[in-house]
Amino acid sequence: MASSLTKDSVTPGTPGSGKTFFGHPRGLATLFMTEMWERFSYYGMRALLPLYLVAPGGLGLSAGTATAIYSVYLSLVYLLTMPGGWFGDRVWGPRKTVAVAGGIIMLGHLTLALPSSGTFYAGLGLVAIGSGLLKANISTMVGQLYQGPDDPRRDGGFTVFYMGINLGAFAAPLIIGTIGENVDWHLGFALAALGMGLGVAQFLLGSRHLDAQSSVVPKPLSDQEKASTLRKAALWAGIAVVAYAVVGFTGNYTLNWVLVPLTLLGVIVPVMVIARIKRDKDLDRAEQSKMSAYIWFFVAAAIFWMIYDQGGSTLSIFADSSAENSVFGWDFPVSWYQSVNPVLIMALAPVFAWIWLALNRRGKEPSTIVKFASGLMLVGVSFFLFLAPLSIAEGGHKAAALWLVAIYFTQTVGELLLSPVGLSVTTKMAPAKYASQMMGVWFLAVTAGDATTGLLSIAGVDLNKTGIVAMEATLAVVAGVAVWMYRNKVKSLMGDVR
User: Fold this and answer.
1) Can you say how many angstroms the Cα of residue 240 is from the centroid of all Cα atoms in its chain?
2) pLDDT at site 148
């Protein structure tokens, strides 16, 4: 997307005075490009990851192990958004945290590019840490460019910003995926590092256009809190080092010694966080009621993301082994399937926005609960569709590429129904005490869903079998129907939120 930098009559001294970016503060261009390059590196690596893990020229792992690693990696990225937000709020401030995070991500991709399985897992860890730090803080800086929540440009600014996400996600598999699959896996990972490097460079060059508030640490740690935090971190790090040293020296170490604890964390932490908020006696009756309603949305979202994120693992591995990856005789890399979702998002999001406005004017716009239930049912339908190519493959034939495109299309429509609604309802239903933390809680639903997929894979469940796919599809549809059937109860618990 080409930038549009023009003079704008903004009051001097306000964020974005002087030149603008599509009528928005110029700092939005910096954040747009940073997010675009970060998503380029992230989605490019993600498109290659499961294919590299199972490839004979890669790590040569089983499909189950590859899915477990992929799922644990995704769950970690979203789990780490909460400590990432904490770092921005209490230690470095958003601007410094994003700059450091970009450097960590770039280092992670460079580590992935090294031809060694040992360094490969270290690289995955670095990318997950950097992504958690960056994801939690860059949106905060977008908000700081505007004059509070009532600035009329604010919603449009976030829309432009999210276009950067989808542009990066669309281009990455086409470029990084092609190089990685057809030329060299490690060169593909190195390209991801280059993309993040470009993002960091332009962020540092353009950071002068950001609001001064982005360099402020909102709630800096006191000396006592710093000492306490360091002691706790050192204690847990020491326990981990001792435990893994014992396992290693006794010759019992396997990959599951890492995967199982991380996967369990991805399930247990979301439950603990929700339970802690729900038990908080500082919340009044209305806030407690809203949290009870929010649990419905949270569980439903976890089921949705459990299936949806298999588009990059289960579906990708299936396509690699059992699909005819060609259109009209023209072959394309398997990783290109990962570009279907972002291009559909860019095409369909404006259509959905127009439909909701048109229905709202007639008083017929579906409620939040109905949209949410519909999105959940659609992701279930996508896996019922998956049964067709699975059956074709079991008959010894290659499934047509259009089957997979149909699955991604159905999932994307479900995402457009559920994801924006989930983000919106999270901010609306957040108790005042947890207003700044609730977006992290929403991301924990993704963590819980991906961690569940990881647990199934570690337990030896073959997620490319018709019985398992049918079970997951049924679970999502039944959950969607349950949310719809109990919509009046959930609506009453939501109080004044609509």
Assistant:
1) 27
2) 67
21 contacts 6 by C-beta, under 8 angstroms? no
4-27 pLDDT per residue, tens: 333 343 333 444 445 677 678 888
CB 51 within 8 A of CB 70: no
Let me know if 358 is exposed, middle or buried by CB neighbors in 10 A (0-12, 13-18, 19+).
exposed
Length of the chain: 498
Mind listing the pLDDT tens digit for each residue in 432-480?
888 767 878 889 999 999 999 999 999 999 998 999 999 999 999 999 9
Q: Distances from the Cα of 317 to the Cαs of 240, 284, 462, in angstroms?
A: 33, 48, 12
Q: pTM above 0.70?
A: yes
Phi, psi (degrees; rounded to nearest 5) at 7:
-70, 140
| Rounded distance between C-alpha atoms, residue 297 and residue 299, angstroms | 6
CA gap 107, 230 in Å, rounded: 24
Provide the phi-psi class of 251: left if phi over 0, else alpha when psi is between -120 and 50, else beta: left
3-state helix, strand and coil shares in percent for the chain, rounded to the nearest 5: 75, 5, 20
Q: Which domains does the chain have, with CATH numbers?
A: 16-216 (1.20.1250.20), 272-498 (1.20.1250.20)
Where the chain has pLDDT below 70, the residues are: 1-19, 22, 148-150, 155, 436, 497-498
- What does the pLDDT look like over 23-73, one tens digit per residue? 788 888 999 999 999 999 999 999 999 999 999 989 999 999 999 999 999
Q: Report the alpha-carbon distance of residue 295 to residue 278 in Å, rounded.
A: 9
Rounded to 5°, the CA angle 385-387-389 comes to 90
Pinpoint the alpha helices (H) of 222-367: 223-249, 256-279, 285-308, 314-322, 340-361
Task: Report the Cα–Cα distance between both ends of the chain, in Å, rounded.
Answer: 35
Task: Label the pairing between strands 399-400 and 323-324.
Answer: parallel
The kind and range of the H/E element at 477 are helix 466-485
Token pair of 35 as six digits: 């997010």
Q: How many helices (H) and strands (E) does the chain have?
A: 18, 7
